[in-house]
Automatic annotation (TrEMBL):
Signal sequence interval, chain numbering: none
Taxonomic lineage of the native organism: Bacteria, Bacillati, Actinomycetota, Actinomycetes, Propionibacteriales
Protein name per Swiss-Prot or TrEMBL: Aspartate aminotransferase-like enzyme
Keyword hit for Transferase: yes
Biological source species: Actinopolymorpha pittospori
Domain called Aminotransferase class V: residue spans: 7-263
PROSITE patterns named in the record: AA_TRANSFER_CLASS_5
InterPro entries, alphabetized: Aminotrans_V_dom, Aminotrans_V_PyrdxlP_BS, PyrdxlP-dep_Trfase, PyrdxlP-dep_Trfase_major, PyrdxlP-dep_Trfase_small, SP_NH2Trfase/AEP_transaminase
Record-stated family: Belongs to the class-V pyridoxal-phosphate-dependent aminotransferase family.
Keyword line: Aminotransferase, Pyridoxal phosphate, Transferase
């Protein structure tokens, strides 16, 4: 992939790029779980595309319901508010998935039919909880509302079935599960979404999805795309397809589980509910007497491993977040557990490192490198 990035830049209106972009879209389709929608590649971070799908499908004053079960659902709502939508949050506890039953109740209330869109984050990268989009889709499908999904940190790591689950607008980005550098965003739109987008006929050019659709049909981007990032994405997708999509998801699940199981021996327990814990990011509670920020600092300064805390959130100081998404190997998990052990010990905590490593090894057995 690094070699793909370093190649000569090619003309973005030429036949070579056209083939590259068409291939990329074709390889993305099964990851989005769609046979009907053609993925659009935008040059932007994930947030740019989240804003783009809202700007293309909402008018000022439109009523929007955001499923607020963590950081990203709430933030998605704020994006809609910034575009003039009238946003209501349907809150459910952090650490769980969004609540499909509560959504059903809310949408069947007397004014529930007024919502133009329901916003959901698939994998909340702050709480480490995954939302059951099939259940949410079942609720939204028969309403006039669009189901708009932030899949920035899940595409490529977690199964997504856009067609089967009835997802209308799905947004992802290059730098999380797809293991590329940041800079590309990916969007799919259902027929229901396109109908809405055509009606709204939003202002603005750069993120005009109708224009992007027209250009994508010709194997082009509306404006100059990040050509070499498309090359990198193409290579990443080639790797995923070579390993097998189902195998990639299964491997991801095992890597995430192995890290969480090892960390549990170090007193670091999963923050999210176990049945919805994300395999792409392990959000771990730090025990009493252990400073989360210090663990992050030790991991960085002593071991050169970048993990995260939960700054500017209610979880600040109480959890650490360890990414296992994208380009991650069993050896990375082994190292993580060993380094986490050292970081916890440094704060005077007595932990059974051997047990942590043995459990991790057991969970990793048979996982391909
Ligand atoms: C990282 C992330 C984003 C933000 O994406 P950017 O590419 O940084 O704009 C949005 N949603 C989720 C769930 C994320 O994990």
């Amino acid at each position: 992939m690094l070699q793909a990035l370093g190649q000569q830049v090619i003309y973005h209106r030429g036949s070579e790029f056209k083939e590259l972009l068409n291939d990329t879209a074709a390889m993305l389709q099964p990851l989005f779980g769609t046979q009907t929608a053609s993925p659009i590649v935008l040059t932007s971070s994930g947030t740019g595309a989240l804003e783009a799908v809202l700007a293309n499908s909402l008018r000022p004053g439109d009523r929007v319901l955001t499923l607020d079960n963590g950081h990203w659902g709430a933030r998605f709502g704020r994006l809609a508010t910034s575009l003039g939508a009238s946003v209501e949050a349907l809150s459910s506890p952090w650490g769980g998935g969004a609540d499909a039953d509560a959504l059903r109740r809310r949408l069947s209330a007397p004014d529930g039919g007024e919502f133009v869109a329901v916003l959901a984050a698939h994998n909340d990268t702050f709480t480490g909880a995954v939302t059951d989009l099939a259940a949410i889709g079942d609720v939204v499908r028969d309403t006039s509302a669009l189901l708009v999904v932030d899949a920035v940190s899940s595409l490529g790591c977690l199964p997504i079935e856009t067609d089967a689950w009835g997802l209308d607008l799905v947004v992802s980005a290059s730098q999380k599960g797809l293991m590329c550098p940041p800079g590309l965003a990916l969007v799919t739109a259902s027929d229901k979404a396109w109908t809405r987008i055509d009606q709204v006929a939003a202002r603005g050019e750069y993120f005009d999805l109708r224009k992007a659709r027209e250009m994508a049909a010709q194997g082009q981007a509306s404006f100059t795309p990040a050509v070499n990032l498309v090359r990198a994405l193409h290579e990443a997708l080639r790797m995923v397809h070579e390993a097998g999509i189902a195998e990639t998801f299964a491997r991801q699940a095992r890597l995430g589980r192995a890290l969480a199981a090892g960390a549990a021996h170090l007193g670091l327990s999963l923050y999210p509910d176990a049945d919805v814990a994300s395999p792409c990011v392990s959000v771990l509670r730090t025990p009493k007497g252990i400073d989360a920020a210090k663990i992050v600092a030790t991991m960085r300064d002593r071991y050169g491993t970048q993990i995260a805390g939960a700054r500017r959130s209610p979880l600040d100081g109480t959890v650490i977040r360890v990414g296992t998404m994208g380009y991650c190997q069993p050896d990375d998990i082994r190292l993580d557990v060993w380094q986490l052990a050292g970081s916890v010990q440094e704060q005077g905590q007595d932990v059974d490192v051997a047990a942590a490593i043995a459990t991790t090894e057991r969970e990793l057995e048979g996982v391909p490198a």
